[in-house]
Structures are given as C-alpha cells and as structure tokens.
Amino acid sequence: MDRSQIVNLAAGPSGLPLPVLLEASQGLLNFEGTGIGITEISHRSPEFAKLTKDLAAILRQHLNIPETHEVLFTQGGGCGQFSAVVLNLLARHRLRFPDLKDEDRVMDYVVTGSWSEKAALEARRLGGGVVNIVTDGRSGSANGKNFDSIPPVDTWRLSERPAFIYYCENETVDGVEFDGHSSTEQGATQFPFHLIPPDPSDPTFLAPLVADYSSSFLSRPIPQLERHALIYAGAQKNIGPSGLTIIIVRKDLLVDTVAAAKLGAAPVPTTFDYAVLAKAGSLYHTPPMFSMYVSLLVLRHFATLGGVPYLAKVNAQKAKKVYAAVKEGEAAGVFRPRVKDGSQSFMNVVFEVLGEGAEARFLASAQSAGLRGVKGHRSVGGIRTSLYNAVTLEQVDLLVEFLRGFIKAEAGSQSA
Ligand SMILES: Cc1ncc(COP(=O)(O)O)c(C=O)c1O
C-alpha cells in the first residue's frame, strides 16, 4: 500500500511530514555535503556539532525558552526520565538539606493517568524519599478506576516543602490533558501554578516543578514554561523519530551529584546526570544523531508554516472536529467518550464503541478505510485516535467522515 492511502493516527511513534522525510532520505546518503550520511558521520564532527547547536537554538525560538534554562538531548525516553528526575532532584535536595531523614524528603506526584502513575511508582521504587500523591485522577470517575478527568484543584494535597512536584501535561493512554478540550463553557482545568509553594532552600524560586510533555511537546505553547524547573519529552510523537529525549532544565538543577552521593544520596548514573550532559553540550556520549537530524528538519519545516502558534491553531481545529464527531456518536448511542469535558486531550482522543462486537467492526472498517493506529492502549482498550502535529486537517476530515459513516451504519443496524 502507498503511504498516500494511509492516515496514520498512531499514539507514537507517529507520522512525520513528507517533505521532511524526503529531505532526510538525502541526508542519509550525504549529510551537509560531507559525502558521509548522517548515520555514518562522527558525532564530534564540526557539522554535527553545528546541528546540535542549531537544534537547541530552534527549540529555544519555537518555545521561547529563557536563558535560565539549558536544552539537553539524550536517550532513554520518558521512562528513563522517570528515574533521572528522581535521582537528580533528590541529589539537589540532599546538597541543600544534608541532614534530613529520607521520610522528610517528599516528592509530590500529581497522578492524572497511567504515565504519571508509572512515574510515581518508579519514584517509590528508587526510594531516597517518600512519594506524596497530590491527587489521583481516578477518584472522580464513576467506578473509581478510570482516569477520566483532572480533579478539581481545590481537592489537591500538595506538600508544604516538596523536593519537587511532578505532573504529566498530557496522558497519552487515557486521553486526559491539562487545559483540555471542552465542548461546553464550563472551562478546562489548568495547571495551578499559583499553588506551588516557594522552594524552601531559595524563596526566589518555586519548589521545583517537573513536567512530562512527551505527547504534547510543541503542539501548543507551554504555559508558564519559565516556572518549570524541568520539562522533558521524547521526540517520537510530535517532532521526530524515536530515540531522542529533549530536556529543558533550569540551571540550578545542574548539581554535583557526586558530592551529593558522598552525603548519602543515591549515586546518579553518569549518563543520567543533567550536569554532566549540560557540561558536555549533550555530547558526553554518542547522542541519537539521526533522530536529532530529523527533528531539526521537522522544526525548520514547522517554522516555515508559522511555528507553534500555527500548530496550536490547527491542532485545536483538529481536536474540535473529532470531538464533535464523537459527540454525534454519543447522541446516537454508538460512541462514549472516556474523558470528561474540559480534560479531553487535544492529542489523543479516546472513546469506546458501544454494542456487541461493535469495536471489532470499527477496527476492521478503519483498517479497510486506510486508518491506522486507532486501537486503544492495551491497558484500557477502546479506540484512540492521535492527532499529533504531522496529522493534517485533510486527514482529520477523512477520519471524521469515517466516524460519521460508522455512526450511521451502526445506528441504522441498532434501529433495524
Ligand atoms: C506521557 C508519556 N510519558 C512517558 C512515556 C514513555 O516514553 P518512552 O517510551 O519514550 O520511554 C510515554 C510514551 O508513550 C508517554 O506518552
């Protein structure tokens, strides 16, 4: 089958813009006129050193990243960061508060879906501090088991002096997002930056705020980016191939983890050490070069389209169209959205298909219609359509047409 016949709605890795892939195929053969392909050239070559700088610079431009923060490139993905965050931030905490007992080193986790839950579990597993669950998104669901909304912020229980506060901006599996899509005027739940307490060791800062942006990075501006101590994302949803992890880290988080270990903190594996990565300009070890190269091309491509404001506008239009079709399906008794209004992800639209055998019929028809990657995550089931940056409005129109056709056929068979 030709790629022009396919609409790739996968949750990641996901589609990339065609002009970029065509350009990247040339770079595989001959990178920057060196006569050597991007996967063959040294990461210490001047051409690749320039690429690394250019990639950081264009990310700074796209997201208005201030000079207070470093931009790092590494490997290990979001799951690697689940561990790296804990180790680096507890090392920082140890340096500032060497005498505290581990039970007084509190890590605040805002759990709004499967990924933040996993991150909290990893923090608990690594130890060195205790995990406080600030809120659990399942608490507001009908059966207490589904992540289907961001709980109202007045129910959150933040610690007074956390070592850090962690949240996931967009929950890819469950389809729950801060400031999510709302079809009513009730408004969406935004991250409550005003609730973040001051950093106990330095009141000029807030307590370190850490955000997993793996599946919404560059899909719209990052609200209050400068108030975050750390933001990370894998490239493989919105900006490039898998392999690359992007970290935006405030400079005061770049600490001497070896000194912290001497005071009793857990040693940080060198390749996970933010200070080491920063000092080496992300070239401490061989970085994910191909993924960085393609990501740079993607970011340049997005710049020609109008950058993040353009992406935000188009992504909002895409989500609006798909949620409207899901709502029509709900009215017809064919679909049920899994996430409540106001918390619905702009990137991952998650819903159920109602009726005996209906989900299997949906998946088979989607396959014939050229739609790919629409099966929900194995842990929650149902349907998930992911509308990342490379998914075009035209492709979304095809998806909506398919959804409407399916609703009509199912509603017809229900009433027959
Ligand atoms: C929100 C979120 N966080 C973390 C991860 C894990 O990322 P990785 O597979 O890059 O380790 C994912 C993966 O899909 C994700 O969607």
UniProtKB/TrEMBL annotation:
InterPro entries per the UniProt record, alphabetical: Aminotrans_V_dom, Pser_aminoTfrase, PyrdxlP-dep_Trfase, PyrdxlP-dep_Trfase_major, PyrdxlP-dep_Trfase_small
Entry GO terms, CC: cytoplasm
GO molecular function, one term: O-phospho-L-serine:2-oxoglutarate aminotransferase activity
Pathway involvement of the protein, from the record: Amino-acid biosynthesis; L-serine biosynthesis; L-serine from 3-phospho-D-glycerate: step 2/3
Cofactor(s) essential for the protein: pyridoxal 5'-phosphate
Transferase is among the record's keywords: yes
Signal peptide: none
Domain of life where this protein originates: Eukaryota
Domain (Aminotransferase class V) ranges: 7-179, 209-399
Gene3D superfamilies linked: Aspartate Aminotransferase, domain 1, Type I PLP-dependent aspartate aminotransferase-like (Major domain)
Keyword annotations: Amino-acid biosynthesis, Aminotransferase, Pyridoxal phosphate, Serine biosynthesis, Transferase
GO BP annotation list: L-serine biosynthetic process
Family assignment from sequence similarity: Belongs to the class-V pyridoxal-phosphate-dependent aminotransferase family. SerC subfamily.
PANTHER family: PHOSPHOSERINE AMINOTRANSFERASE
Protein name as catalogued: phosphoserine transaminase
Species classification: Eukaryota, Fungi, Dikarya, Basidiomycota, Agaricomycotina
